[in-house]
């Protein structure tokens, strides 16, 4: 019989490790690796398309975990369970670090290498990522127009719509401050969650009470800093995105029809938790 023997002569036995998986679950089985590792289907003859596909697929996997943690953290804040929320939010920030570094790998793709792939993408674009849109909505950047790219898939639209209509993480943080007796106005605790967030001096004053007397409001103070860490990491993700796009395609329009770099630069100006950043000037 040709091929490698199952137990080659002279091979050392790994200390007690199970070697026969004919009747039990293996690592490949548990992680569904057959499905995962066969999900890369390049459309072009270009060598570098595999990089492009894997980078975006792994980013989507990280985003799946990020959403899992973000939703649970938002629910924990709504239930006044801040200790588990802090753990989850710290993990979200670490996941964003992984997403930032993912751009480092894609940045090894040169403009000619990307040009060999680009035509095969047609109109597909990361702009259409439903998971990314859920993250944006979950962090409070609501825009009804961003529902439209998912209208052709009712199953995906349902996920995005739910995130669009639900209170964001910051909304729940402000409701928590109000429950603790801080003067957050009703306009920011009982509002239409589908509307973009409007910055408020009254909200900033409430956060200032927390930051000026952290010993009295230690867990809320820590919440404010967890939110700061999260937005800091998210800004880095956005910045690394725009610089990688500029490096690879210059100022060409995006495959999804946006202005490319010009659109992404506008996103750099979006502030998710404005009062937490602005209060620092007054401390």
Given the helix and strand composition, which structural class is it?
mainly alpha
**Care to count the β-strands?**
0
If you compute it from the alpha carbons, what radius of gyration comes out, rounded to the nearest whole angstrom? 23 Å
The profile of the biggest β sheet is:
none
Question: What is the terminal-to-terminal distance?
Answer: 78 Å
Characterise the protein shown here:
- With 283 residues, the chain is mostly helical.
- It is built from twelve helices and no strands.
- It has helices at 27-30, 33-37, 49-78, 82-106, 111-118, 130-138, 154-165, 169-179, 201-212, 218-249, 261-267, 274-278.
- Helix 3 (49-78) packs antiparallel against helix 4 (82-106), helix 3 (49-78) packs parallel to helix 6 (130-138) and helix 6 runs parallel beside helix 7 (154-165).
- The longest helix has 32 residues, at 218-249.
- It is globular, with a radius of gyration of 23 Å.
- The termini are far apart.
């Amino acid at each position: 019989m040709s091929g490698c023997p199952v137990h080659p002569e002279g091979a050392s036995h790994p200390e007690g490790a199970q070697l026969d998986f004919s009747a039990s679950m293996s690592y490949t089985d548990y992680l569904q690796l057959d499905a995962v590792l066969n999900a890369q289907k390049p459309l072009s003859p270009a060598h570098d398309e595999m990089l492009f596909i894997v980078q975006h697929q792994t980013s989507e996997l990280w985003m799946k975990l990020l959403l899992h943690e973000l939703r649970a953290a938002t629910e924990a804040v709504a239930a006044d369970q801040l200790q588990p929320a802090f753990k989850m939010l710290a993990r979200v920030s670490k996941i964003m670090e992984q997403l930032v570094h993912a751009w480092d790998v894609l940045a090894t793709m040169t403009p000619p290498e990307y040009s060999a792939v680009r035509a095969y993408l047609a109109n597909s674009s990361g702009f259409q990522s439903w998971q990314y849109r859920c993250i944006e909505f979950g962090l409070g950047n609501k825009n009804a127009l961003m529902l439209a790219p998912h209208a052709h898939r009712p199953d995906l639209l349902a996920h995005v719509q739910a995130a669009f209509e639900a209170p964001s993480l910051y909304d729940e943080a402000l409701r928590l401050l109000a429950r603790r007796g801080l003067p957050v106005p009703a306009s920011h605790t009982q509002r239409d969650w589908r509307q973009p967030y409007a910055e408020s001096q009254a909200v900033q004053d409430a956060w200032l009470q927390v930051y000026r007397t952290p010993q009295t409001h230690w867990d809320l103070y820590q919440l404010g800093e967890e939110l700061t860490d999260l937005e800091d990491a998210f800004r880095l993700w956005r910045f690394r995105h725009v610089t990688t796009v500029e490096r690879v395609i210059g100022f060409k329009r995006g495959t999804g029809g946006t202005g490319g770099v010009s659109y992404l630069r506008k996103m750099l100006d979006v502030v998710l938790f404005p009062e937490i950043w602005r209060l620092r000037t007054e401390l």
